[in-house]
Amino acid sequence: MATGRTHRPATRSRGIPEATVARLPLYLRALTALSERSVPTVSSEELAAAAGVNSAKLRKDFSYLGSYGTRGVGYDVEYLVYQISRELGLTQDWPVVIVGIGNLGAALANYGGFASRGFRVAALIDADPAMAGKPVAGIPVQHTDELESIIRENGVSIGVIATPAGAAQQVCDRLVAAGVTSILNFAPTVLSVPDGVDVRKVDLSIELQILAFHEQRKAGEGVDHEDQVAAVAPPVSAAPAGPDGPDGRHQGPDGDVPAVMPA
Ligand SMILES: NC(=O)c1ccc[n+]([C@@H]2O[C@H](COP(=O)([O-])OP(=O)(O)OC[C@H]3O[C@@H](n4cnc5c(N)ncnc54)[C@H](O)[C@@H]3O)[C@@H](O)[C@H]2O)c1
Question: Main role (predicted)?
């Protein structure tokens, strides 16, 4: 579901390529399901099928973790869960703030899956004074005036932006100035951030447009391929420019690359 790239080189300093990092949550989700069924070991083929990944790619990915499995036995599920969780930084608790508690922000706040994956919603923040103090998912909404103190007091390094696009850059700037170094952006705009800040962008409409592209190709089998690309490409490339689209600022490298949803 997520789209976008982090502001990182293609290979991380520890030598794990970004593409591998992006697949680790898929493996973790499949492994967690196996663990819940008390399955002790899994072959690379079984795990690759469960994660929707090619098995040779999986073995290569796991070699970066120093995990090679045992011939004839496969991988130890529990140990691999631990290894991947550790690699993703999920063996520690990450406080997260959500800014913009409208339809989407409230839905995210109500999502129960964050806590079990190592993310704690530390605060919900909104600019609407009428919302201040109102509980959403059991957490009282706090006004944006308190954003900086909330970030500092809770040691927050991850911020989720669910404001209208027009407010997103300003919210991003404040989050970053207060110490946030990772941002998950749901607003349909490209954010400009300094070096050292990672941005991931989620845009369901882009995902749907990509599916529409493939649907059209399937439906149009027999029609000249180039004609279809020409017909479809403009709306896809123009995807972020919705009613509250890009604000014309510098567009960072966190682009519209289909990626994976964390586990
Ligand atoms: N990425 C996706 O797939 C996806 C899906 C749905 C919505 N969206 C986007 O998410 C955003 C929120 O959508 P929604 O339907 O929840 O909108 P909404 O209007 O219901 O909620 C927006 C909230 O942001 C608050 N807000 C506005 N300016 C703010 C600021 N400067 N600081 C803090 N809070 C501020 C508003 O008070 C409101 O509560 C929009 O940008 C929308 O386009 C993205």
Answer: Modulates transcription in response to changes in cellular NADH/NAD(+) redox state.
